[in-house]
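Action item from last meeting closed. Structure (619 res):
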């Protein structure tokens, strides 16, 4: 059987990859091990968070499914960092994991051009460094123009709970045992990483009265730009907060000698920013407690996930430590926490399109690229799927720049710098984060989705209306002087706002941190009738107006800088500040311009800055 695109794995990356490929008209086959597990949340029952929320909104703006699914399956919506600036806020939702899977499975089954098949892909069909299909455990062969691997934690997955180990892709699911061996034989750099998950406890055995309630936002915000904000009224279930204590820490420290993380049993490096409880107690021994969130796994509220208590300690130790925690004294454990080691492929093996450099037509997306997180995986899946579809039609690749999207930052970081630990997204990784706000993702990216046929006419009209309303408002406010005439001063006083001396541009008054919609209506009467959600956007634009202008200038400067030619036989070795690795690569590839240099894997933006300075001085 012949397909345009075969996607291996129905996790968060695989779903997005197969959906976009199919929606772009490509005959697509999604092969995954258990169809019931399409869209399974291997770890926490939540989507989004700081920077991760940005990724979901961006992929939604381009036409991905994760945002819509989250709005459908969400059971608590919150904006994190709500008191801080819009650029560092992050949307987060608790999800009903079962509903999430059901929704995704249904969408995959009902998308034209997409077929779903349950089996394990055991081998890639490769000839002369071109992949042309896959072979499965049931010895079926499927041919395809493009193959996208999204195998998550399944390649040679090995689960650890205390001294016990067993091979699995996720708890009680079979691993993928042969693929990574073949990838290594094909010359790709394969490494080993680790991640972990906490225990889940029976809701009936938890004493919630001993814990703090942690609810969702009063006015929940949907993830998807395509969900109607006005009618959005999801269930808002609470989470609960409790803490570890010195007794919990004693139990853990006195069992360090049985912790696979410390005994050498686990070799792969784990996620630095999502450490296990044994790692936290070891590294921060001065801390008397660690915060834990009890999160419902589903709307049924039968099981709670103990966020913050990821562990691979033996089960008797896990039980003792859980019972030492306030509110969990009598907790019945339904599933124990564990760690999993798995094979990944060094992401510097990839081009920006996520196609491997060594094997043509083979793309990698998700945890296979050393990332961690559903959102990171889904974003890569979307990009791999789009690029595979574009390549079939001999069209220009779709590469997002660092100043355009967090997705651009994610992929650029992975393919140019690589990583030796699970990579997760942070707002601090984006140098142009003021431009990359969550709420502007549709303005930045929906046109691309529209061009690829992933965004409807109706949605695009909504985006254009938003763009025009905001642009017109900014244009008006940035040309309108607010003078110190008597009625203006009285207005400021009545709003509790600081006076102005002589005059100020209206945009600078609206851009004050203290301005909300009610004050806006009085300050800018001509725009009082604008829809509420757009008014909020206009206020945010005003707040960032000056900074954004500065950042745009920097980007222009950077673009100009990258055009600079590098003189032939430039002596990189004499430049202080460049690492040996960078010097070796520059000598090897001899790039003609700074732009070409910046595209070499491992040549960082800091190295480009240094090069620019020295070329300027010397030439
Ligand atoms: P997955 O969601 O893992 O999906 C992979 C899919 O590929 C599965 O459906 C599988 O059946 C299929 N598959 C694999 N190999 C084959 C094959 N050969 N043939 C056919 N199908 C195949 N992320 C965080 O952000 N924070 C955490 O704390 C965290 N903890 C985690 C703890 C555990 C124990 C696990 C397992 C994961 C954890 N994650 C965590 C990671 C998160 O689950 C992943 O980052 C995310 O699910 C990756 O998405 P993916 O699509 O790449 O892979």
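Sequence:
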């Amino acid at each position: 059987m012949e397909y345009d695109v075969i996607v291996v794995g129905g996790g968060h990356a695989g779903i997005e990859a197969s959906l976009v490929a199919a929606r772009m008209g490509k005959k697509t086959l999604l092969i995954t091990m258990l169809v019931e597990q399409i869209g399974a949340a291997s770890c926490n029952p939540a989507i989004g968070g700081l920077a991760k929320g940005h990724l979901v909104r961006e992929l939604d703006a381009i036409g991905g499914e994760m945002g819509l699914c989250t709005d459908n399956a969400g059971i608590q919506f919150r904006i994190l960092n709500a008191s801080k600036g819009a650029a560092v806020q992050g949307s987060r939702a608790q999800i009903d994991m079962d509903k999430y899977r059901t929704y995704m499975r249904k969408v995959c089954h009902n998308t034209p051009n997409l077929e779903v098949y349950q089996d394990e892909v055991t081998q890639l069909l490769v000839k002369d460094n071109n992949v042309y299909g896959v072979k499965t455990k049931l010895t079926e062969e499927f041919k395809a123009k493009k193959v996208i691997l999204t195998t998550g934690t399944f390649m040679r997955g090995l689960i650890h709970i205390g001294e016990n180990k067993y091979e699995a892709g996720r708890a009680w699911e079979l691993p993928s045992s042969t693929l990574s061996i073949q990838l290594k034989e094909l010359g790709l750099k394969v490494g080993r990483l680790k991640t972990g998950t906490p225990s889940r406890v029976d809701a009936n055995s938890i004493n919630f009265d001993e814990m703090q309630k942690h609810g969702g936002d009063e006015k929940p915000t949907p993830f998807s730009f395509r969900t109607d904000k006005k009618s959005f009224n999801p269930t808002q279930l609470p989470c609960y907060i409790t803490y570890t204590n010195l007794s919990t820490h004693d139990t853990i420290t006195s069992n360090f000698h049985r912790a696979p993380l410390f005994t050498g049993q686990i070799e792969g490096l784990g996620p630095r920013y999502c450490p296990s409880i044994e790692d936290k107690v070891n590294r921060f021994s001065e801390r008397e407690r660690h915060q834990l969130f009890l999160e419902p796994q589903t709307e049924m509220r039968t099981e709670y996930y103990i966020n913050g208590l990821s562990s691979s300690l033996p089960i008797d130790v896990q039980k003792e430590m859980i019972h030492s925690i306030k509110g969990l004294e009598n907790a019945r454990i339904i599933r124990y926490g564990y760690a999993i080691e798995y094979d990944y492929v060094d992401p510097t093996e990839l081009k920006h399109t996520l196609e491997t450099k060594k094997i043509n037509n083979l793309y990698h997306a998700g945890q296979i690229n050393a990332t961690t997180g559903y959102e990171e995986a889904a974003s890569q899946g979307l990009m791999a799927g789009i690029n595979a579809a574009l390549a079939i039609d001999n069209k220009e690749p779709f590469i997002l720049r660092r100043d355009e999207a967090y997705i651009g930052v994610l992929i650029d970081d992975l393919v140019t710098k690589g990583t030796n630990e699970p990579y997760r997204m942070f707002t601090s990784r984006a140098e142009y984060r003021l431009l990359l706000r969550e709420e502007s993702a549709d303005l930045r990216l929906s046109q691309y989705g529209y061009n690829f046929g992933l965004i409807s006419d109706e949605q695009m009209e909504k985006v254009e209306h938003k763009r025009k309303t905001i642009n017109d408002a900014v244009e008006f406010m940035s040309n309108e002087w607010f003078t110190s005439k008597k009625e203006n001063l009285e207005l400021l006083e009545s709003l509790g706002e600081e006076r102005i001396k002589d005059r100020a541009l209206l945009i600078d008054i609206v851009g004050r941190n203290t301005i909300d919609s009610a004050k806006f209506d009085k300050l800018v009467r001509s725009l009082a009738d604008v829809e509420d959600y757009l008014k909020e956007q206009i206020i945010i634009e005003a707040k960032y107006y000056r900074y954004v202008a500065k950042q745009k200038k920097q980007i222009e400067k950077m673009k100009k800088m990258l055009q600079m030619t590098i003189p032939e036989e430039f002596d990189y070795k004499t430049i202080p500040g460049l690492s040996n690795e960078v010097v070796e690569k520059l000598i090897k590839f001899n790039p003609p311009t700074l732009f070409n240099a910046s595209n070499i894997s491992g040549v960082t933006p800091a190295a480009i800055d240094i090069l620019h300075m020295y070329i300027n001085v010397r030439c």
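Note appended to the action item: The longest helix spans residues 532-562.
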